[in-house]
């Protein structure tokens, strides 16, 4: 591991490993398989990039998206590690040149789309080169129970017989339930792997859910308050993407759109403009983002609720990849549930898969309605102990007084029981409200003692309250297209008088105007004091150099490295080399120009 630490400083500019990295790297260097479940921004890529440098031969990295490959290869090249990629973006001539380079041993890492492993020409090449390690990125794609299953990932193990000897196998993903983890082990044939889960909590992210707000108004206000910061806005449909992008562009914001209805060239141009900071905001469907390596995304807003928590956390986790504070906001309305159910019904999945999708959607709805710590809710969903509240999320920082809703909860539980636990949320709310509804009369629910007992509460608020009771474990929903409300075990304590139900009254306008703990504008108190004027000057220098080199600005140095320069104000080569994120190759290429910019600034002051 001494060699690994020296390589970490030389190539990546860091003196110590992050949590989980050392365990995985040591296992791979000892020839053992590994499974790493590490949140976005935790440094998964170094876990296989560093062993690739130290092991003989060429490491293969199976990656799902072209954009990820290009970003990773650009970043490795900047650090002085020879790497390349082969995918459909290359011409036949470029592909042949790179294949010859692989055979000649010119690279240490080669990134591939899983479809490339179906090429007989490539499989024959594998028999002529040394492959000590195969790393599978976004490994959840191999599982049919994962949120982004890709059948092409099933063919990864097909390459093993073509290699002289079995390589070390390593699989990485940011999110995976226990079922998905086991699927990964089986389908990739990992042999007694070292398993590292560093925890799903992202300490730099502030999660929040805004319910029933005017979404367009909220979004406009939110992004304006974060002028100059990079952000992603996810919407459920192409039509929603188009409308959001046009609205924000009409406000004078630098905003692009990304969805499957655009041509490949249009999508590529928009993505490049975003990576290069020419666009401040991208409005996109979930077609955008998996593997996007842009480190300085400060916020992710979900304009619509995603289909499940795994997808949500993957997408939200694209904020704050550099470890700096990020914000993740979910704008929730009941109409989002209808949209996602439509997608499930229109899919060609079998009935078992659809039932699973409905279950996952119910979990997503519960998250959107819980009064518990949002970070803790996500951690528990993935099978970890929740621990203490995060203190950062919208629920933890909610200053509204708690209201005792025990009596209301008892009435709701009684209504569910008297309806024989066979009907949905909306009909339950109608009975409680005392609605003059044909279906209520059809089943004789207008004769129940609970009929109309909450008539002073709006149906919308009753639906919200029922969903909150579901989210907090007092009620549960069946896994079906039309889920049925049932009593959960936790309701027993309330009915027996041993537990109280506390809730915060939803005030839409206040929620719509709320701002997370991190505020806006990149102020110094988020990170410790630093010179913001110098920071902007270094950002300008970085953008100029990025244009010269033809790479995104964050590939040169991320925001955290620039901020540390502004805090330490290095005045010599030795001090500049001590800044985190500045390895040998990057200092040789850019260090002098940044050092001179800092010295010039200090002279001016």
From TrEMBL:
PROSITE patterns xref list: HELICASE_ATP_BIND_1, HELICASE_CTER, HRDC
GO molecular function, one term: DNA binding
UniProt domain HRDC: residue ranges: 528-605
Ranges for domain Helicase ATP-binding: 25-194
SMART domains, A to Z: DEXDc, HELICc, HRDC, RQC
Needed cofactors: Zn(2+); Mg(2+)
Lipid metabolism is among the record's keywords: no
GO CC terms of this entry: bacterial nucleoid; cytoplasm; replisome
Gene3D superfamilies named in the record: HRDC domain, P-loop containing nucleotide triphosphate hydrolases, Winged helix-like DNA-binding domain superfamily/Winged helix DNA-binding domain
GO biological process terms, semicolon-separated: DNA recombination; DNA repair; DNA replication; SOS response
UniProt keyword terms in alphabetical order: ATP-binding, DNA damage, DNA recombination, DNA repair, DNA-binding, Helicase, Hydrolase, Isomerase, Metal-binding, Nucleotide-binding, Zinc
Helicase C-terminal domain span: 215-365
Enzyme Commission code(s) on record: 5.6.2.4
Enzyme class at the top of the EC tree: isomerase
Catalytic activity, as annotated: Couples ATP hydrolysis with the unwinding of duplex DNA by translocating in the 3'-5' direction
Entry similarity comment: Belongs to the helicase family. RecQ subfamily.
Protein name: DNA helicase RecQ
Species assigned in the record: Cohnella fermenti
Highest classification ranks of the organism: Bacteria, Bacillati, Bacillota, Bacilli, Bacillales
